[in-house]
Specification:
Blueprint lengths: L7 H10 L5 H12 L5 H11 L25 H7 L19 E3 L5 E6 L3 E4 H10 L7 E5 L12 E5 H10 L5 H25 L1
Antiparallel strand pairs: 1-2, 2-3, 4-5
Helix pairs in contact: 1-4, 6-7
Length: 202
């Protein structure tokens, strides 16, 4: 079994990473890098041994709080220990995604990365814009006719205004595609009638 306290790379990592990070993040990052789960006592013992201040409250820096090591320069020995785990200029994080990468959001939508450093868009909206050569506004909603958020076929994408979407949500989609298209048409009709009534009431 590895005696991690005697491993220079592990020691250097902890010296560099502990300040400003919560216990959970320290344990998680250490396990990801070295495959070893440190206990709370082990992290605490390491901090005491090297006189390291975590510098956080509840795992976060507080507003106006100054880092414990602000303005301090590392000794050559400390720098030599930490340099191997420091980010270098232009270095990408291990989970960096290239432009064009896709992911599924927590809501079940396909998202696509369109720009660096971390700009993602809903793919179904992008597909609709590219197919029709338009730019959707915040008032435009694109829904899936069959209810399947992973079906990005252009024929499955329907554009509604927010007011039309409200009407549709009141009635709900029926599950069958043909019935859903009827429900969408009805929602648009109700929204239009609502607009007419509002204009007449003024």
């Amino acid at each position: 079994m590895i005696e991690w306290r005697n491993e220079t790379e592990m020691t250097a990592f902890l010296l560099d990473y502990i300040p400003g990070h919560s216990l959970d993040k320290i344990q998680s990052e250490f396990k990801d890098r070295f495959g070893i789960t440190l206990t709370k006592a082990q992290v605490g013992g390491f901090k005491s041994r090297y006189n390291i201040h975590q510098g956080t409250k509840g795992g976060q820096f507080q507003k106006g709080q100054v880092s414990w090591n602000k303005g301090k320069k590392m000794t050559p020995e400390q720098y030599a220990k930490c340099s191997r785990t420091m980010f270098k200029k232009g270095q990408q994080v291990h989970n960096h995604k290239e432009v064009g990468s896709e992911r599924i959001s927590v809501d079940g939508y396909v998202e696509i990365k369109v720009a660096e450093p971390n700009h993602w868009r809903l793919k179904h909206r992008l597909i609709y814009e590219q197919h029709y050569g338009i730019k959707l506004s915040s008032n435009d909603a694109i829904i899936f006719v069959d209810g399947n958020r992973l079906n990005l076929d252009i024929d499955n994408l329907e554009r509604l205004s927010r007011s039309e979407l409200v009407r549709l949500n009141q009635d709900g989609l029926r599950g069958d595609e043909a019935m859903n298209r009827s429900a969408i048409a009805l929602a648009k009709l109700k929204a239009k009638l609502g607009e007419i009534k509002n204009r007449e009431a003024k």
